[in-house]
Amino acid sequence: MGEARPLTDAEKSRYEWQLATPGFGEEGQRRLKGASVLVSRCGGVGGLVAYELAAAGVGRLVLAHAGPVRPNDLNRQLLMTAESVGRPRMEVAPQRLRELNPHVEVEAVAENVTEDNAARLVGGVDLVAACAPLFRERLLLNREAVRQNKPLVDCAMYDLELQITTVLPGKTPCLACLYPAEPPGWRREFPVFGATAGVVGCLGALEAVKVLAGFGEPLYGKILLCDLRDMTFRQAVLKRRLDCPVCGPAAA
Amino acid sequence: MNVAVRYMAQLRQAAGAAAERVELDRPCTAAELLQRLAERHGRPFRDLVLDAAGAPHPAVLLFVGDEQVRPETTALRDGDVLTVLTPMAGG
Known about the structure:
The structure holds 2 protein chains of 2 kinds.
Chain A: H1 9-14, H2 16-19, H3 25-33, E1 36-40, H4 44-56, E2 60-64, H5 89-100, E3 105-109, H6 118-123, E4 127-130, H7 135-147, E5 152-158, E6 161-167, H8 175-178, H9 194-213, E7 222-227, E8 232-237
Parallel strand pairs in A: 1-2, 1-4, 2-3, 4-5
Antiparallel strand pairs in A: 5-6, 6-7, 7-8
Helix pairs in contact in A: 4-5, 4-9
Chain B: E1 2-8, H1 10-15, E2 19-23, H2 30-41, H3 45-49, E3 61-64, E4 67-69, E5 81-85
Parallel strand pairs in B: 1-5
Antiparallel strand pairs in B: 1-2, 3-4, 3-5
């Protein structure tokens, strides 16, 4: 983790309401200020993760997402506006985050995660928020996070359902323990409301805040499964895969 | 014996239901139950839960109660609630 950094009077004033959170306090806020998070990608879920982390005062956000804003992004990608259609996402998102919180440093990378950039992107931050719509990208982030011993918050949705877990390398199952191969039949486009993305994005951001500031009980070794059709929330305990190609003994 | 099966994510649409009850005339593993369900529901359900050889796909997540289980080594018991989930990547 990055080193905790002192707060200015303006920051103490801005974060006054959350500073009163038991177990968090000024020390937690200083830790957030000294921390950095990679958000990949910055769409429906990642946009909300980034928005909430900026609001909370994480010191540096690295956003990775290629391409321009499309009209059909607007039902869920709340960092984007109608006027931003056609513009690169990585121009629009940093601007909106800086408008929200100018104390936060925002670095925009107009690339999706690939074999070529995964090690560098993960290497530059303290925590990874995996929010990409493709398993290939999530598994790449997972591999690098485990290799570089960085915590990873995996948050995902489908329809009115969502799943979220937090990987702590060496301590918990990793994403390759959950799905060692890409699951069959996944389509990049899927049914979803923006509010579902908002729920999982906010949950993911809160997981990151807890891990970085060191309070609460993150979803280490557990998965939260939510069905928003009937508002069922449940946790289940995950198992490490002894033959995991990423975090198992054979990977060492 | 009687087992309740709950589906999540893409499997819910593929099964045409969020949940179902299965009557088993003999004890079986979660893997055997998945194979029976794949036979019952056909495609695309089968393609989501089984690999080309007809074994449970390694990416399918199974939970009995609130514990993740491996399909081949988990013997189901009367009254178990099995949750079957294809992982999500929507972001």
